[in-house]
Amino acid sequence: MKKTDILCIGTALVDSIIKGFDEKPVSASGFRAKSGSLNVGGEAVNEAATAVKLGMKTGIMCFLGEDPAGAMILNTLRDLGIDTSCVIREKEHPTPVTTMFVNDDGTRKSITNQAHRYNFHPERYTDCFRETSAIILGSLFRAPFDDPQIIRSVLEKAREEDVLIFADTKLPNFHPLSLGDIRDSLPLIDYITPNEDEAAYYTQKEKPEEMAEVFLSYGVKNVIIKLGSKGCYFRNADTAIRLPACSIEAVDATGAGDSFVAGFASERLRGSSDEEALKFGNACGAVCTTAVGATTALKGRSQVLELL
């Protein structure tokens, strides 16, 4: 019996979410917004929170500074029942904090800073892979996965331990990589899950079908293009599936893609087919958008099944 079903690897941070920002100043240096809140976030946290709420034994590997933001995240993870034995904490680097401006339709813009650049070297802690059935790389192409050698080391070790590998992607913010830069690592990935903008950036294609073909040509086994309000597109060597999004009123899209990935991975580990897991992931992403904050709305698996 392994300690966890899923180990989520990537960034943990605090989101300062400003909703309904009014660009018209009320004084020389003062502005108004409908609301402001602090929320624990980052792709690894979002995915882990989703997975554990869906009933999966879940762990996280991330970096936290020894500061109030780090303590806030660690307490939240433990309260959720997420295994934190693979969390790395150091005094030298602060925990990342992101400021997010959320529009009324749920779309958003974010501001990162130098703290997001710190790479905590997950390849040094791959012994954790012996105790899990699957890993989710929350941010392929961003720290800590913006170094080809680190990516290769992590994926090779996961493959040695017969761990299922899910790789979500992000657009680069400090250290750009191309698919060609990690061509030796891509065949080790079982499922890659870029959103439409990310897939267009890395493949230089406009249609999901064309984007997926590029990823497949690099040896990725299964490709999922997240299309937001248009649903998702799945492709592997034998099958193509396009699913519409769930009909729901979005409040905040923060973390919806992370919820999709965690939901999909959870259902695959439960033995569901790719199509069944895609439908479930779609519903997880939809539920996530119904409240402000990446991990606020989703309460449990029954909630997702009810939406379906």
Task: List the SSEs and their pairings.
Elements (H helix, E strand, L loop, with lengths): L3 E6 L3 E7 L15 E7 L1 H11 L4 E4 L1 E3 L2 H13 L7 E3 L6 E6 L5 E4 L20 E9 L7 H13 L3 E6 L21 E3 L2 H8 L4 H10 L4 E5 L5 E5 L3 E4 L12 H14 L4 H15 L12 H7 L1
Parallel strand pairs: 1-4, 1-9, 2-7, 5-6, 9-10, 10-11, 11-12
Antiparallel strand pairs: 2-3, 7-8, 12-13, 13-14
What's a concise summary of this model?
This protein is an alpha/beta fold.
Question: Could you please describe the fold and organization of this structure?
Answer:
- By secondary structure, this protein is an alpha/beta fold.
- It has a domain at 4-11 and 46-63 and 116-301: 3-Layer(aba) Sandwich (UDP-N-acetylmuramoyl-L-alanine:D-glutamate ligase).
- Helix content is 30%, strand content 23%.
- The protein has eight helices and 14 strands.
- Helix 1 (43-53) crosses helix 6, helix 4 packs across helix 5 and helix 6 runs antiparallel to helix 7.
- The longest helix is centred in the C-terminal third of the chain and has 15 residues, at 274-288.
- It is globular.
- The mean pLDDT is 93.
